[in-house]
Amino acid sequence: MAEPKKLFIKTYGCQMNVYDSSRMAEAMGEDGYVLTENQAEADMVLLNTCHIREKAAEKLYSDLGRLKPFKAEKPDLKIAVAGCVAQAEGEEIVNRMPLVDLVVGPQSYHHLPAMARGEGPRVLTEFPAEDKFDHLPQNRATRRAPTAFLTVQEGCDKFCAFCVVPYTRGAEVSRPVDRILKEARDLVARGVREITLLGQNVNGWHGLGDSGREWHFGRLIRAIAEIDGLDRIRYTTSHPNDMTDDLIEAHGAEPKLMPYLHLPVQSGSDRILKAMNRRHTAVDYLRLIERIRAARPDILLTSDFIAGFPGETDQDHADTLKLIEDVGYGTAFSFKYSPRPGTPAAGRECVPDAVADARLQEMQALLNRQQKATQDGMIGQRVNVLFEKSGREAGQMIGKSDYLHSVFVAASDIQAGDLREVEITHSATNSLGGRLI
Q: Is it true that domain 382-436 has CATH number 3.40.50.261?
C-alpha cells in the first residue's frame, strides 16, 4: 500500500475556523491524507485564515514567506490558503506569492480535494448555490475529544460598519435540522459530551425542520438536548437582536444548556451603536440582560467591546464604561478599532492612536477587575467540570466548568471525558483550582 500523504494545517482565528479545518482534514482524508503536526514532513500545508483581526493579510504573507525554504527543498509540496483572507484577497494571493498552489474561500472548501488533484481551478472564492455540507464526507468513526464544535449557521446579514464577515462569509445560511442532529449524534457516538453550536450569527439560525417548517434556535437546542450521552450544550456568537423569547426561555428550562452566554454589545454609547449599525440601544441591551438573568439568575455573561471607534468621544467612552459597570461581566474581549478593508467604517476618520490606546487600557482594567471578582466569588462553590486534558504538573487534570472557567485539580484517577463535581478552592489569573468532591 502507498504511504499516506501528510497534511499540516495552521488555523487562525475563531472557533468556526477550527471547525472548518477539521472538516477540510476529513475531506482530504478521503484522498489519502493524514494529519501531521510536523510541518517539515508535510506533503500539503493548509493555512486556514481569519480576517477579523488587524493586519490579517500581512500575517498570512509573512507565514507564506517562511514557507519558501520548504517549497524550495520539496518542489512537490502543495501550499493552500483557505478561509476569510482567501475569500477577500483571491487571485492577489497567487499573484503576490506564486508558491501558493491553491486558494479556496470558506464556502467552497468542499472542492479542496479535487483542486489538490488538479481537477479544479487554482483559485475558488465563489459563493456556490449548493450547500457545501452536502458534499463533505461523513465523519469517520474515530474517537473524539470530549468537546466539539458544530456549525449550524454561516454568514451574516447585519452589516455592522466595522465587520468584514458579510463580505467574506456571505449572506446568512441556516443548516436544516436533520443534518445538524445527524452530525450531533455522530459526535456523541464518538465520545463527545459537550457540543458548542457555531455561527457568525448563531442565534439567528432558522433552519427547516422535518415538517418543512422553520424552527427557531431555542427549539433546535431542545432537540439536541434529547440526544442520549450528550451532557452539555453551548453556542457562540450571538447578536442581541436575535435573543428571542424562545431562546431566553431555553436558558431557564434546559439543564443541558450551560449557564454561559457570550453576547457582544461593542459599545455603551447610543451614538456609536448607531454609527456601528448595531440597530439596538444601550437600554435595549440592558433590558435584554435583565430578562436573561430573570430566566437564569446564575448565568455568566461575556461580551465584545471596541475602543476608539471612529467618531468616539470621551462621553461615548464613559457611556461604555457605565454599561460595563451596570452589567458586570465574567470576562470580555476588548480591542482597539482597526479598519477592515471594504467595510463602511474603513474610510472614516480614526480616533488618534494614543487616545484609543488609553481608552482600551481603562476599559480592560475595569473588565479585568470584574473578571477577578467573578472568579474570586467562585471560591467555595461546587461546580461540574468536564475534564479535557492533562495539566502541566504531574497528576494534574484540566477541564471546563459549567461557566466555561478553566479548572485544574490534582487527581491521578481522572481521564479526559470524565464529568466530575469539584469544589473551587482558589483563583488564578485566568483559571480556577479545586478539589474533587
A: no
